[in-house]
């Protein structure tokens, strides 16, 4: 085995800092919503860096970016990647760390003059976050053939723009057919975004799989009326119904326990005025569980509660499913490979499920897929104070580098 290669942490840190200047928020953190101008600037920078490394860059018809490093044989590549779009209150590592660590691993191979047998593909998938356009992991879903391109182009974001128009506007509606690159295997390096590794003082997470998720949007139609002169018994208050739903979801997660989580992240009231009983409420629902049967049970209980509440309050509720994915289990061979690599580098490691969704859960449909986690300080993510310590950034990237060499040998 060639003596073990290491990534260059300074170079990785410099790239992270330079990239995060794009969409930097005044108080820290980043906002590079999918297909926004900030996303375009990030894409342009990534493509420039890929070209500087001599990678051959392709953009597919949903805007996925691939940088391919030739192998000694022209066969299916080993793929690593993640995403460079962020949520509105994004940190500096969610997604971006996995892409730039992948770039760093390829540059380390360049520096060492190593040519792998298999080609290596670095991927940045479009719209992983799903904050602006649902569903999340849109680029990888199209890549694996689980979402039709034309349906995607017509999807309207929360600001009314469509995916197709925005892809064209930022110049990333590529000409390559999605899925043209067939990965031999896929690894995604990502921050944990939860408290487990830090709490146990561990460095590496060998991710077993990704929990199931059910995203929906409820539109509640009540009746606007005067906040002062309308007796409580005559009200059809969409704002009240939205609030009850939020409270119910918290109570449901607590009663079900286990890995059940539930979130109301967005409530929009119309007309949204202090002295007008809300006519309409738009509510986002995010339910997740590692167990599919329990996730269905949670959805069933929520639906029953909403129906009963709507009848009692004399409002109508229209529900729209935005995304629905069953739990995914990564092949044990991929999970064991992460554990073995961590061990051989003397890095503490444990297996754990992913609470957050990732492109890897979609790639698992078309090739052996796995994930490597590194600790999140305070378990915090989707927060401008998201932080992972340099020694953990370095450890994760070194494990990724070794896995690439092992899979591409
Ligand atoms: O929502 C998620 O789990 C991912 O961060 N998009
Ligand atoms: Mn992510
Ligand atoms: Mn995220």
Residue stretches low in confidence (pLDDT < 50, at least 5 long) are none
What name does CATH use for the topology of the largest domain? Aminopeptidase
Strand content: 15-25%
Assign the structural class, choosing from mainly alpha, mainly beta, alpha/beta, alpha+beta, or little secondary structure.
Answer: alpha/beta
Rg for CA atoms: 22 Å
Q: How would you portray this structure in words?
A:
With 409 residues, this protein is of the alpha/beta class. Helix content is 36%, strand content 21%. The protein has helices spanning 9-20, 37-52, 96-112, 138-143, 149-154, 163-170, 196-199, 238-256, 292-313, 332-344, 359-363, 390-408; strands spanning 56-59, 65-69, 78-82, 120-124, 185-191, 204-210, 212-221, 261-263, 267-270, 280-289, 316-325, 328-329, 349-354, 369-374. Strand 1 (56-59) and strand 2 form a beta hairpin. Helix 1 (9-20) crosses helix 3 and helix 8 (238-256) packs antiparallel against helix 9. The longest helix has 22 residues, at 292-313. The chain starts with 8 loop residues before the first helix and ends with a helix. The mean pLDDT is 97. The structure holds (2S)-amino(hydroxy)ethanoic acid and manganese (II) ion (2 copies). Residues 87, 94, 129, 356, 382 line the site of one manganese (II) ion.
């Amino acid at each position: 085995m060639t003596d073990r290669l290491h990534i260059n942490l300074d170079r990785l840190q410099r790239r992270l800092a330079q990239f995060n200047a794009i969409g930097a928020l005044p108080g820290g953190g980043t906002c590079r919503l999918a297909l926004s101008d900030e996303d375009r600037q990030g894409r342009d920078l990534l493509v420039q860096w890929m070209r500087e490394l001599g990678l051959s860059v392709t953009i597919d018809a949903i805007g996925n970016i691939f940088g391919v490093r030739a192998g000694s044989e022209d066969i299916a590549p080993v793929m690593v990647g993640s995403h460079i779009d962020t949520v509105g209150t994004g940190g500096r590592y969610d997604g971006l760390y996995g892409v730039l660590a992948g770039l760093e691993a390829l540059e380390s191979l360049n520096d060492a003059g190593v040519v792998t047998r298999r080609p290596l593909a670095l991927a940045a998938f479009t719209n992983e976050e799903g904050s602006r356009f649902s569903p999340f992991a849109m680029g990888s879903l199209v890549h694996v053939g689980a979402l039709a391109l034309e349906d995607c182009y017509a999807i309207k974001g929360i600001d009314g723009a469509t995916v197709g128009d925005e892809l064209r506007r930022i110049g990333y509606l590529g000409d390559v057919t999605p899925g043209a690159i067939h990965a031999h295997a896929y690894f995604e390096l990502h921050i944990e975004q939860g408290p487990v590794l830090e709490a146990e003082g561990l460095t590496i997470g060998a991710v077993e799989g990704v929990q199931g998720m059910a995203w929906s949007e409820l539109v509640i139609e009540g009746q606007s009326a005067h906040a002062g002169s309308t007796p409580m018994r005559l009200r059809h208050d969409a704002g009240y119904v939205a609030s009850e739903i939020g409270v119910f979801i918290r109570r449901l997660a607590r009663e079900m326990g286990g890995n059940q989580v539930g979130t109301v992240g967005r409530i929009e009231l119309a007309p949204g005025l202090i002295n007008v009983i809300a006519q309409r409420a738009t509510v986002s629902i995010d339910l997740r569980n590692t167990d599919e049967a329990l996730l269905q049970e949670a959805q069933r209980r929520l639906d029953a509660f909403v129906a009963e509440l709507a009848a009692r309050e004399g409002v109508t509720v229209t529900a729209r499913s935005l995304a629905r994915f069953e739990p995914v289990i990564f092949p044990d061979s991929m999970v064991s490979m992460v554990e073995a690599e961590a061990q051989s580098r003397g890095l503490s490691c444990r297996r754990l499920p992913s609470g957050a969704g990732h492109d890897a859960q979609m790639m698992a449909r078309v090739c052996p897929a796995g994930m490597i986690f590194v600790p999140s300080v305070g378990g915090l993510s989707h927060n401008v104070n998201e932080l992972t310590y340099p020694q953990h950034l370095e450890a994760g990237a070194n494990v990724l580098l070794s896995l690439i060499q092992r899979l591409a040998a």
